[in-house]
Amino acid sequence: MDIANLTRVSEFEWRIAPHGAMRVPGVIFADEHLIRDMDEKVREQVTNVASLPGIVKACYAMPDAHWGYGFPIGGVAAFDPAEGGVVSAGGVGFDISCGVRCMLTGLTRAQVKPMATALADALFTSIPAGLGSTGLIRLDETAIDAMLAGGARWALGQGYGEAADLTRIEEHGQMPGARPGEVSSKAKHRQRGEMGTLGSGNHYLEVQEIAALYDVEVAEGFGLRQGEMVVSIHCGSRGLGHQIGTEFLREMAVAATGTGFQPPDRELACAPINSAIGERYLGAMRAGINCALANRQIIGHLTREVFAELFPGARLELLFDVSHNTCKVEDHEVDGIRRSLYIHRKGATRAFGPGHGDLPEALRPFGQPVLIGGSMGTGSYVLAGTKESEARAFSSSCHGAGRRMSRHQALKLWRGRQVVDDLAERGILVRSHSSRGVAEEAPGAYKDVAEVVDASEQAGLARKIARLLPIVCIKG
Description:
Helix content is 33%, strand content 25%. It has 14 helices and 19 strands. The chain has helices at 32-37, 40-49, 109-112, 116-126, 141-157, 185-191, 216-222, 238-255, 276-310, 387-393, 407-413, 416-425, 435-440, 449-458; strands at 7-10, 13-16, 26-29, 59-66, 73-79, 86-88, 99-108, 204-213, 228-235, 270-272, 317-323, 325-334, 337-346, 349-350, 369-372, 380-384, 396-397, 429-432, 463-475.
């Protein structure tokens, strides 16, 4: 990105002054290396989002930002319905409520490493992964509607997981306001056999070692101890979420012709929050959130079953489950006034600070765990939300490393078998049905997650608590 078009506010903050149709400024959080490495489309998309009706304060981009559909991935924007604010399917993304779940094993590396091959094989067998993957669960339409309304609570009622899990999941495992009736039959049909599956692309299940602690007190509060192992699960709402996004983007684009507002980019199709289509999308999107919460709850249960067989007595308590592709109603202070806003986070993680009422009591003194996925072979991180983050970017932080090249470009540089072999030499076992998918997700295709996390911390978005290194990776 050409920094000549930006105003540098600090070492980790860059501003795009309002111009043209922009209603608010654009703000990008990054160090100079990350900002120069960003595609120029990020600046263009931040500028476009800043022109949408009812946007409040600024459009933000996280340090892992890269080009996306309409909104940049890593984009955050808040809208006020009282000021004609809009909801955008492109501002949520196609993988509704894609997120990360982190589970504590209490097992040490010394206990797990000798069993790594057996563990990798058992997880790969038990948890379907890959494009179009299906599992043993089959839902009829009545069951799908119940799942879309109930989320992880529905999954718990079906025997998946433990009641204690619900306190450690966003929305306590069930997103209110879901309207399964607004989800099309086609979307439901795509999901009939996909519950309890990882899917493809950048989705994964990893067994990871807690390799470093940066804040021992908070780490202890989270249950993180150096040398112990955790399991991280990264996936979302599968085909159902994609279908919801596809259908409503098309409908919003058609409906926009009668609103008098034409977005600067067709991919930014949106609708007034209080309009019929806006309310219908929000109902369907919330159902998609529940689908993702239920999906991760089921996968967590399947993971516990594998560990129970190989490591009798292992509990796998849930640390937290947090999404990074959502639109949620939250109260935030703007110019000294508390306002109820619709916060779009697309490839950005919610990061509530200490004392926030929506956090479980056990975590409230420390702030919300912010779960940041790396790429295969690199570190992942656990961060914690801060009080400062609310003022910085509506309590939002980065969500991962962020791609630095397209999947097509990655295929020109790597072969899946070679990536798997290289990682095995480093003690990281990868299991995947797709050699092409592994090549597309090669570590070199991503930004340096450590640099992204450091920039997020220095920008005041969240603070580092722990670094996680993979020893087993199940790839979609």
